[in-house]
Write a structure and sequence with these properties.
By secondary structure, the protein is α+β, with helices and mostly antiparallel strands. It has two domains: 162 residues, Defensin A-like (2-Layer Sandwich), CATH 3.30.30; 212 residues, Alpha Horseshoe (Serine Threonine Protein Phosphatase 5, Tetratricopeptide repeat). The chain has 20 helices and nine strands. Helix 2 crosses helix 3 and helix 14 packs parallel to helix 17. The radius of gyration is 24 Å and the shape is globular. 33% of the residues are buried. Keywords: Initiation factor, Protein biosynthesis. This is Eukaryotic translation initiation factor 5.
Length: 404
């Protein structure tokens, strides 16, 4: 295309006949003051050359710069908050290529990203055949696991082969088979959590009267209401109800039942908890996230967030889910465990670091008192306690702007 400049994907290779090339990354500064941002107008073209979704390098920039990012794939718009020099972003793109594109063995960029059964990221090289690991410590890894790569478009036969996977064309452990699995679709993901759920499903059904005996013996409305009443003190009058109605639970709705089960089985671990959520058909419901935030944790919440991170990474998939999580946490510290209110900055930090809560959503929540989940005074108290973390977010962004 006329006017488009290209460079070698490996810019350290000084060979004008190098076959792997990409467009030069372009940048455009928009806005001013606190609203200044760097738009990446050709990020989709650059990413297409790398066989990676454009959200990956954009998010990588945010991770490396400590800046908030946003993207709208429908309008093909990718943004990094703050004013960033084009040369600096191109250098960061080189780092992204080294870490998430180039084969760890032959340094060829013709690789696919795949997720293994153990939730490891692998660069599958089509040039030398080696499968090399990605550094799992990088924050971008969490984002990729939450937004798994789709089937590579370079392989024209991939879509046709998708119908043959069950016939053995691509084995269940093959990179293509793993990449084609949806992230969350009724428990069909190939990550470790869901694998365990699927493998243990038969045992769960056969031993239904053993696991949680009281729960399995009597699930009538009367029995559930009775257990709700007995747990009332410990659960702080959990506000549960229909997913969209905002009404209080009456003891026989699925959210109240989930809350009772989680409160009674907190020690079962993330696999059993998510299995119960799936069994009840609530894995995509934002209200289920609120229930878990209210009932899954104890005074050891900071450690428990790490333990249960896979659940929230799978279930928190939209802004509505994030707000439901914050609402549940608001009731957890504001009503159920008021003595833990001073920990809210650390709690928010934990969810922020595992990439479950976005900076923009946290800031919006922290600056708008709401009576949706708690009374107005409690809402004010919780948000007041969160101020150190909100200040940290603002200072991190200001520091980034000053550096520019």
């Amino acid at each position: 295309m006329a006017g488009v400049q290209y460079v070698n994907i490996r810019r350290d290779v000084d060979d004008k006949f190098y076959r792997y090339r990409m467009p030069v990354l372009l940048t455009k500064i928009e806005g001013k003051g606190n609203g200044i941002k760097t738009v990446l107008p050709n990020m989709s073209d650059v990413s297409r050359s790398l066989s990676r979704p454009p959200t990956y390098p954009t998010k990588f920039f945010g991770c490396e710069l400590g800046a908030q990012t946003s993207f709208d794939e429908k309008s093909d718009r990718y943004i990094v908050n703050g004013a960033h020099d084009a040369a600096k972003l191109r250098d960061l793109l080189d780092n992204f290529i080294i870490k998430f594109v180039l084969c760890g063995s032959c340094k060829n960029p013709e690789t696919d990203l795949t997720i293994t059964k153990n939730e490891d990221l692998i660069r599958d090289c089509k040039a030398c055949g080696e499968r090399t690991n990605v550094d799992m410590r990088h924050k971008l890894v969490t984002f990729i696991l939450k937004n798994p790569p789709k089937v590579p478009k370079k392989s024209k036969g991939t879509k046709k082969q998708g119908t043959a996977d069950n016939q053995g064309t691509n084995g269940p452990n093959s990179p293509k088979a793993e990449a084609e699995e949806p992230a969350v679709d009724g428990g069909e993901s190939d990550d470790e959590l869901t694998k365990k759920i699927k493998s243990e499903a038969a045992d769960l059904n056969q031993n239904a009267t053993i696991v949680g005996e009281d729960w399995s013996v009597d699930t009538s409305a009367e029995a559930v209401k009775a257990r709700m009443k007995s747990l009332e003190g410990g659960m702080g009058n959990v506000k549960l109800g229909d997913d969209d109605s905002g009404e209080e639970g009456n003891g026989d709705d699925p959210y109240s039942q989930l809350g009772v089960w989680v409160a009674e089985n907190q020690d079962e671990g993330p696999v059993e908890v998510f299995k119960k959520v799936q069994e009840m058909g609530l894995e995509k419901k934002h209200r289920a996230v609120q229930v878990l935030a209210q009932t899954l944790f104890t005074e050891d919440i900071l450690e428990e967030i790490k333990l249960n991170a896979p659940i929230f990474l799978k279930m928190v998939t939209s802004e509505k889910h994030q707000k439901a999580l914050l609402g549940g946490l608001e009731r957890f510290v504001g009503v159920d465990h008021p003595d833990l209110t001073p920990l809210i900055p650390k709690i928010l930090m934990e969810f922020y670091q595992i990439d479950v809560l976005d900076e923009e959503i946290i800031k919006q929540w922290g600056t708008h008192v709401s009576r949706k989940y708690v009374d107005k005074e409690t809402s004010k108290k919780v948000r007041k306690a969160s101020e150190p973390f909100l200040k940290w977010l603002d200072e991190a962004e200001d520091d980034d702007d000053d550096d520019e």
